[in-house]
Amino acid sequence: CKKDFLEKRPQGELSQEQLTNQKGVEATLTGAYALLNGNLSGTWGNYASGPSQWLLGEVTSDNAHKGSDAGDQPNMNALERHSPTSTNDNLSTLWTRCFEGIQRCNSTLRILAALQASSGEKFADKRAAEIQAEARFLRGHYYFFLARAFKNVPLILENTTDPAVDNTADIYPAIVEDFTYAVANLSTTKPLDQVGRADKIAAQAYLGKVLLYQKKYAEALTNFTAVMAARPAITTLDYKANFDITRENGPESIFAVQHAVGTDGSGGDNGNVGDMLNYPYGGSSKTSCCGFFQPSIDLANAFRVTATGLPMIDGSYRTNPFKSDFGLTTAQKAAYQVERSLLVDPRMDYTLGRRGVPYRDWGVMQGDPWIREVTTGGPFVPYKNSIEFAEFTNGTAPGSTNVNGLNVNVIRLADVYLMAAECQVELGNLPEALRLVNAVRARAAQLPVATDKAVGGAPAATYRVNPYPAFPSQTYARDAVRFERRLELAMEGHRFYDLVRWGILKPTLESYSAFEGQFLATSRGITIGDEDNYFPIPQEQLDRSNGVLKQNPGY
Amino acid sequence: RVTSSDDQSPIPGASIKIKNSAQGTMTDGNGAFAISASPSDVLVISFVGYQSTEVTVGSRTTVNIALKQEDNNLNEIVVTGYTSQRKKDLTGAVAVVDVAQLKSQPAASAVEALQGKAPGVQIVVDGAPGSTPQIRVRGVTTINNNDPLYVVDGVPYEGKLSWLNQNDIESMQILKDASAASIYGSRANNGVVIITTRKGIQGPPKVTLDAYYGTQTPRKNTFPEFLSPIQYAQAFPNATNYGTGATPVLPEYLRAGNIFGLNVTPADADPSKYLYSNDPNSFYQITRANQQGTNWFEEITENAPTQNYQVSASGGGENSTYSFSAGYLDQKGIIKYTGFKRYNTRANTSVSALDKKLRFGENLSYSYSEGFGFGVNPNVSGDYQDEGSAIGWAYRMPTIVPVYDIQGNFAGSKGSGLGNAENPLAFLYRGKDNLNKSNFFFGNAFAELDIVKGLTLRTNFGLRYENYNNISMRYPNPEFSEGNSSNNLSETQGFNSEWTWTNTLTYRTTFAEKHNLTLLAGTEAIQNKSRSLTGGRNDFFVLGDMDYYYLNVGTANISNGSSGSAGSLFSLFARADYSFNDRYLASVTIRRDGSSNFGPDNKYGAFPAGSIAWRVSEEDFLKNKVSWLNDLKFRAGYGGTGNQRIPVNQYLSRYQQGLLTSAYPLLGGNGVVTGVWQNAYANPEIKWESVTSLNVGLDFTLFSSAIDGSVDWYNRKTKDMLFPVQLPSTAVGLGNSPYRNVGDMSNKGVEVNLNYHYGRNNDSPFTFDLGVNFSKNVNKLEEIAPGVDQLQYGAFRSLRTSILKKGAPFGSFYGYEQSGIFQSDADIAGSPSYPNARVGGMKFRDINGDGAITPEDRKIIGNPNPDFYYSLNLNASYKNFDVSMFFNGVQGNDLYDTNRYFTDFPTFQGAKSTRLLNAWTPTNTASNIPSVTGTAAEIEYESSSYYVQDGSFFRLKNLQIGYTIPAEKVFGSKWGISKFRVYASTTNVFTITNYTGLDPEVSAESETYSALGVDRGIYPNPRQFLLGVSVGF
User: What average pLDDT does range A437-462 have in this prediction?
Assistant: First the structure.
């Protein structure tokens, strides 16, 4: 036998030497982008890591229920009820996906450094800096997702040699550093002119957001102001474009996770798999799976407005609440008519689906037949993550209509406006805050309800949204900005994290539990402790770290 | 030349002496001898186990002597590692399978029939035709693959054995301990099963014809029972479809178009509106409720035929022998639309030349098999089990749903409140054309040359080549709540190939009359390659037309892929067998293996072993003094074996470009750019996993061979167990953590084999044989990995059924221990409790005594490894009648019935078990079944002792009655029929068990580690009735 008889090279795999060149670095960087949809491979199971953060950012708040059958995904029930244990699989889903993304960013930076230090054909300095900026932007993103959810996170960078790093240090400074580098080394045009890449505007917005989470309002505001200046006024932009698969990457999109569902044989793996459970279930709906992520009755009522078209920020919207056909007898349900006199913000019917109202181009929502188990999730269905039925052919994965190609906005311009407004409130500049909030409201008033939401020739509700005349006090302004943030961005993955950083999780959710629990058993008796501001570190990761990682207090 | 009288095989090592003289010699490997003698000399020919014979030389120059065997099996020649030995000379733990008994049990696979035939070998068989039985030799040795190494006609083979026709087997031995198996070195940790196929025997052609035909019936008394629609409505007040208020109302219709349940009006249900179309917008199905309730297990099962035919011929002349066979097996399954077919042929030839000093030949087999449907084709036993399989659906489908709608199309769960199960019969029907085909060639060519007396060179080249093709279709299932309107074809084509080239040099000698020595040295090179190609498309113009289904006429979702592997092994080995005066036996083996699986530092591993035996019955103080003792031998052996069956290239860091794993739509839209990621992290130190084992045993034959048997005790320790220790994500992200050599496992056990024979040694018209096998094995995971004391696995929804825990048996069940039911709010307040506890909910034991139920209160709640397993064989014959019975039992193992997750808990809307009729209520407080509710606390959905049951069973596996027709009397001599036996046989006659699932024989579900005893919807064993005939002429 020859000596090399026992040498078998890997089949269909590459070595690091084969990657240490320009093509290899670019490919590794593309790999770092690829985790943005929260999915390694295989569509099912990436619910907590989806960029929409519907599970950890919304179901955990007063906006939404898990939905589906009571016993389906019981670990999600535990999250909804704020009684998760460290073995909750959804937590390890987020943790592992984000760290895979971080590994890829670090790989990119390492291989790039090796190439630039080698005698091979190197990148020009500009592209080399840009690649570093893109990789660090992405690393900042993954760490931010981890820091929001778990707070105490180990920091692994490209030059970390021993991955046994503990999770005691605050990683926000490192995140700020990554985004700061990205702001400095990216330009306002997309790298390589590719629309899916991060640019300077996205980096500024993200840096501002991270600073806001640290309550560094003035520094944050500078970044937000730059972003707003770089984009058209929001009043000139269409709200619906944010949730329209035919108008992706428009001017309002600051940083969006790109989703693709081509016929390239990837079978939806590069689509929006995070939200694949979150569509109406059955009946004449156009999707058959899976009835999760149902908007709460509380959220629906938050859209109710006073006769002057202002939201009831004092909480009075809970008086005599609107429940659609929930709780009616069989006979009453058969006779149900939509309440046209209901006074609501038009964004309601672009945020949730309810009985008697047209749902995109799917037809009029049927009520119970579109809902998997009404007694578990209530009478409403999610809206923002779905697409027009006319777009199903190209917009959903071949053979599975519950994976679509709709991008998910991580940061959109309205979010930046409202974050800027928040900074202005905290910095005491109420008129500027008022201007920003009213710009968002003015844009909402342009929604074409008369055509979109008409049944039998007349609108399904009395839609009204008017600007605030003034913010009489900082407290009022703060409440108004926060309420507006809820209405504008509901079901987009912000709410729980907002409540935590505002420090109002406990009062908000306990009062929500008392209200929502009148109707749905799942919401009854939720109590919030300090530990509920963050989720437990996944047990398997603690175990695998051999004691290096420490559990969050209270778990 | 000296041969054996029964099969004309040569007897090497026989002693030839000239009577009353010191002159003598021995026969060589071919049974030949040469001696100078005068015509008046008398030759005394003797060989252990044979009756001595005397012949007068006379004027002959060639003397052929056929020795008659003494009538017991001690002289049976047993093929062991690269050589053969007499059974009585064995020093290691070798189970010699009674092949006649093996063949008497009709089975599609030889492994299946091996069940209960050898102590220390546990086989779990399920009912899927052509399935891959789970085989374990002396317990679970490793957390990795535990399948033994097969050696077929000298060619090692790893994989499933369904291609081999059991009628072609001539002998089968199982090398169980290291001293016997370590000559197979790095692949012998899990035992070695040595199979030789039928060879030709010198003489006129012998033709045999075997055939059976029969039917299999589902054992309906094991079917689970479900609440009828009205019982369901009463148990779940206000359930969707059943009206609101105190009195449930069974709906007349479940569906009419998009109107459901009680909302369906007569106008909606007008049959003229019915439209079954591919367009979901115009699709209009009308389904009546089945108010009586559908028994889904009845619907998906049926009586199924099974048949087998085999013809073989063998014979030969002085310098060549041949054996030929051809067979056909066709077994349908009791689950509808499942089945397995096999066509196989074999040709074994042997030729000698150069005055018989050169022998060469070949053993070739070719098998074509087809499997279709659920459960039939997994490469790993039990791998088909899934909640989304036909049986999984049958556990979940509401009983109110009928099988068909008003027009005879499938009805389903689409509607309101009908859950998310798929019509299991529709699922099976739509899979009826999913076909797996395999062309399997396995053969070898060999040549043997006697260089000088006693020294033989042998070279053997074996080749395996399998080519397979699978096609699978998906159809629209518009009646299913989570259905789909697309259709799809996917197809796989691939091959596995392996060649093995073995060269050995054997020297046999006898010196000073009493010393027998066999020396062997050899080399072996193995190389394997595999490659498979897959493709798929959606949207075919017509559905269900198999003549149309080719990929290139599909119009959407075009996908394809291929993958492959390559590996090699190179080995050197040597062996010495020595015996003195037939009393003292010793054997030493060593093997050095080099494997492509390991890096430069640890490429080679050495595996030595030694064993000794003492045939105490040959000692003067016993021989001919204790009349009832025919043979008694003590054995002891110690040695090491290895395991290298892990994914390749663990010593290298590897990167991959993947459309699914590392692509991103950088350009927006539906196109993607494919990047690279590190999919595997390296462990340069990776090396061999090893087992050292000590075996002590004794073999005995008593009372004129009326009783024989053996007892073995062993202690096996697995060290440096190859373990994919999962590193934290901070180290590897989602890439594969490398295997490391960290775990330790131990198996200790006792095996007893005992046989009683009546009427064997005389010409009694009545013969009776009784055989008992008993095996006990205690498995313990001694060490997992540094810092890792336990690992949970066996993910099934929110259950994690199994655990690897230091100090516990492999695959133990893990969870909360149910201590009862919360009787009242006061009970909850006064007991250790958990968030969202409810009256009527599960009460758990507070293991750590901290007053609350937390994850720390989980414990081992069951052990899937049996305390012991046993079998009993009874064979009797009287004149021309024969009867045989084979019993098989397992005692003390636990099973985990995951199906209860759906049928006993408020997890999903769907069928519920009749157990709920006895659920806890304020008036039925003694029940341990949680009360019926819409919502339970999260912890109630977790793994608990509620799922665990005793899995012990005792089964009359096979009962057979045969009659041998006195052929010559009936047919006359003209036909030349030498044998004509007819028989009737029944399998799975009865089963005694407390297990409430479909079948207590539950194959492991493979995950990262195999989940033993976890029932996720097993394919149950049928009862089988056969009529067969065996004719020889």
Answer: 96
What percent of chain A stands above pLDDT 90?
Answer: 88
Identify whether B846 is part of a domain: yes
Q: Which positions 102-161 of B are in contact with A (Cβ < 8 Å)?
A: none
Q: Is residue B244 part of a domain?
A: no
**Within an 8 Å CB–CB cutoff, is residue A86 touching chain B?**
yes
Q: CB-based contact (8 Å) between A289 and chain B?
A: yes
Cβ-Cβ contacts under 8 Å, A544 against chain B: 726-728, 788
In-domain check, residue B99: no
A–B interface: beta-carbon pairs under 8 A:
308
Number of structural domains in chain B: 2
Q: How far apart are CA A5 and CA B596, in angstroms?
A: 8
pTM of the predicted structure, to 2 decimals: 0.90
Euclidean distance between CA atoms B1004 and B984, whole angstroms: 32
Domain that holds residue B838: 789-862+897-950
Say if the Cβ atoms of A269 and B570 lie within 8 Å: no
The per-residue pLDDT of chain B, averaged, comes to 90
* Residue B835 near chain A (CB below 8 Å): yes
- CB–CB of A544/B726 below 8 Å? yes
**Interface probe with B: pick from A2, A7, A30, most Cβ of B within 10 Å:** A30
Strand ranges (DSSP E) for B409-514?
A: 435-452, 455-474, 488-511
Residue B529 domain-assigned? no
Predicted confidence (pLDDT) per residue in B645-658, tens digit: 888 899 999 999 99
Partner A contacted by B421 (CB < 8 A): no
Which CATH number belongs to the domain containing residue B60 in this structure? 2.60.40.1120
Mind telling me how many Å the CA of A438 is from chain B's nearest CA?
Answer: 32
Residue extents of the structural domains in chain A:
15-198+494-555
Element (H, E) at B180: helix B178-181
Find, among B462, B553, B197, B234, the residue nearest to B347 by Cα.
B197
Joined tokens for residue B407: 């027009």
Q: Judge whether B978 and B967 are in contact, CB under 8 Å.
A: yes
Q: What is the pLDDT of residues A294-309, one digit of tens each?
A: 999 999 999 999 999 9
CB B941 within 8 A of CB B902: no
Interface test with A, best of B655, B902, B905 (most A CBs within 10 A): B655
Q: Which of B906, B932, B950 is the last residue of a domain?
A: B950
Q: Which CATH architecture has domain A15-198+494-555?
A: Alpha Horseshoe (1.25)
- Which residue, among A185, A154, A158, A188, has the nearest Cα to A171 in the 3D structure? A154
CB-based contact (8 Å) between A161 and chain B? no
Domain end: B48, B70, B92, which one? B70
